[in-house]
Design a protein that fits this description.
mainly alpha; hpI Integrase, Chain A; 3-stranded antiparallel beta sheet; two-stranded antiparallel sheet; 10 helices; 7 strands; globular
Amino acid sequence: MPFRWAGSDIKIPRLTEEKKILRTFTPEDIRRLVNHKTKSKSQQRIQHLALLLLDTGLRIAEALALRSTDVDLDNFLIRVQGKGRKERLIPFSLAGRKTLYQLCRKGGYLFPTRGGTLSVRNAQRDLAKLCERAGIRGVRCSPHTLRHSFACHYLKAGGNVEYLRRCLGHSNILTTQRYLQSVQPTDPQKIHNDLSPLGRSL
């Protein structure tokens, strides 16, 4: 709504605020994250958490609440209790299955502590340390960045926005479409060729 001076017909439009695009993990950052050699069980646990978020786009609270009984390793699905206690099924990759298999072996919470499960605050702290040890620079290593990276890489590879909305647990597709701002295909012609019915027929 424009600003109007008192007693005047002069309208001054609001300044358009610059939208900052959140930087996502590059393929090199992801390789560093995957190949990083951890030195303790706690470091390995946080690495597994990072890989899970990157593979599924889960919210941090959703991931930390997971139990082994929520994971269907045979059908590559995770049962998640999202916002508003809405339940949804999230697929994971073959590479993600290897991580989840390690997490499910002992039963109970996937990220257990003596008091129950890892807290969001401690997870955020440990993720930042993990990126520092792995030599990842120039990107904020946080649960939200991992979720954002999953969404952007998914769309960049030609993924369906509606299907992504379901994975992320968004009630409104407009929320999901915001991720498109960060998607900058490096080779738009190749992506178009892969998605075009004619291109795929050749």
